Amino acid sequence: QAYLNAIEAANQVFNAYIAVTPEKALDMAKTSDKRRAGGAAGALEGIPLGIKDLFATHDVHTQACSHILDGFKPKYESTVTQNLWDDGAVMLGKLNMDEFAMGSSNETSHYGAVVNPWKAQGSNQQLVPGGSSGGSAAAVAAHLCAAATATDTGGSIRQPGAFTGTVGIKPTYGRCSRWGTVAFASSLDQAGPIARDVRDAAIMLKSMASVDAKDTTSVDLPVPDYEAALGQSLKGMRIGIPKEYRVDGMPDEIEKLWSQGIAWLKDAGAEIVDITLPHTKYALPAYYIVAPAEASSNLARYDGVRYGLRVDGKDIADMYEKTRAAGFGTEVKRRIMIGTYVLSAGYYDAYYLQAQKVRTLIKRDFELVFDAGVDAILTPATPSSAFGIADQDLAADPVKMYLNDIFTVTVNMAGLPGIAVPAGLDAKGLPLGLQLIGKPFEEETLFKTAYVIE
Ligand code: GLN
Q: Secretion signal: which residues (predicted)?
């Protein structure tokens, strides 16, 4: 009830929730009380969570914040959210996000921008919370839920985490089931938590993760007790610092933050080693081919027949066209066009196939570093702190917006786990985050290392 009251009081300001489910929340809370009284409390018993609108929730608003899914209420529950409910968590409602998770500022949502709870010192300008999981990050930062689910295809957990001073982890590809999560780019998409601290993120990921017969890319490996890793020594650990992440024009503050992070990890007993990930500079262009390609294929299903919006036309082809023209926003249309182009005969070899080859090289860069004895890699999470809503510069040039993902997309391309952890404030008093990248299925290493930084 306290969280529902907080949402009622503050959501108008932040626009983090696009649907609140008070009856469901109170009902689930009552069930939790009973389970607790009966001595059968789950790991998340009674914990109120916000759910990104990308997760299918039974009979509850699920629209990936797109107009084209208007009125869609699935008759099924995503595996990740079902896992959370099985452990006793309580649903508060659905959270705002960029349309179909395409964006880095939450401004592509059909439901409007989300306001970052943080403001620069002495300024009243409204800032973005990052994206695409902007609603999740803002709701956690503003205490409108205890933690939230999110997804990360190219940084959408880690970048909003960094912009709001929260902790976000994208687990290894395959750690969480993708079943029931609206697909953006299926070979990159992973669910993960955004939480207020490393411990909460560790507890929540443990509940979210599972193998699932309904997603053959989910992996049948035991899910460790991530919380148990917190407080473990970093002695003997080797942390790699990739020189390619020192990008041109990186602000001094980010550089300083990175050095500070290195110093903290050294103090905690880790050995710092310089490493090279030579194909890093190709990650962003390759990502912006692979992700739109997969998106154009995944989004073909929204045709006005099966889901949501239908705009009638003179025949079925006309109905498809009118529905898709009215239902998708500008950024989604841009991605569908790029994706269709790079997959089309004559261009497939030049773009898509080439991008897949680059992806293999990016993955190999990481493998070589890990094979040489590096346990985790430390980088900044984002090239800047949160920027303003409706930034003219970014609005005029979508490629500039894509540059936000420069430190995060390599992790998705290689399928690795990555965590963003708050590491300090910039001169404006805004949060900045550091990122740790780990070996496949070694999320524990990330949690224990991030715990030293937070
Ligand atoms: N900003 C990236 C994009 O727009 C990442 C999105 C995501 O991780 N869902 O594609």
A: none
Report which of 81, 32, 75 is spatially closest to residue 54, judged by C-alpha positions: 81
- 407's CB contacts (< 8 A; 6+ apart) are 155, 245, 379, 380, 381, 382, 383, 435
The answer to whether the CB of 279 falls within 8 A of the CB of 272 is no
- Average pLDDT of the chain, as a whole number: 97
DSSP H stretches of helix in 87-143: 134-141
- ipTM for this prediction: 0.98
- Banded pLDDT at 44 (limits 50, 70, 90): very high
**Residue 360: pLDDT above 90?**
yes
- How many A from CA of 17 to the centre of ligand 1? 20
Taken in order of first residue, the domains within the chain and their CATH numbers are 1-454 (3.90.1300.10)
Across the range 304-321, mean pLDDT stands at 96
pTM, rounded to two decimals: 0.98
CB 97 within 8 Å of CB 134: yes
Q: Is 365 in the pocket of ligand 1 (CB under 6 A)?
A: no
Could you list the active site residues?
Answer: 52, 132, 156
